[in-house]
């Protein structure tokens, strides 16, 4: 029974290692996308400050 648990734990560790690798890929192309919307959102926030 102890041998079965060790074998089941092994496969679980494998996917975890691949997960972080995939996470690093999406954030790379994401930074350029959120960059343009940032300046558009900034003016809106300034408008609210003038309202009060």
Automatic annotation (TrEMBL):
Tree of life domain: Eukaryota
UniProt-annotated stretches for the region Disordered: 1-52
Biased composition (Basic residues): 7-24, 41-52
Species in which this protein is naturally found: Dreissena polymorpha (Zebra mussel)
Stated name of the protein: Uncharacterized protein
Pro residues compositional bias, start-end: 26-40
């Amino acid at each position: 029974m102890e041998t079965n648990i060790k074998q089941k734990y092994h496969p679980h560790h494998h996917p975890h290692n691949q997960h972080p690798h995939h996470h690093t890929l999406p954030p790379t192309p994401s930074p350029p996308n959120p960059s343009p919307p940032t300046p558009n959102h900034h003016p809106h926030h300034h408008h609210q400050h003038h309202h009060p």
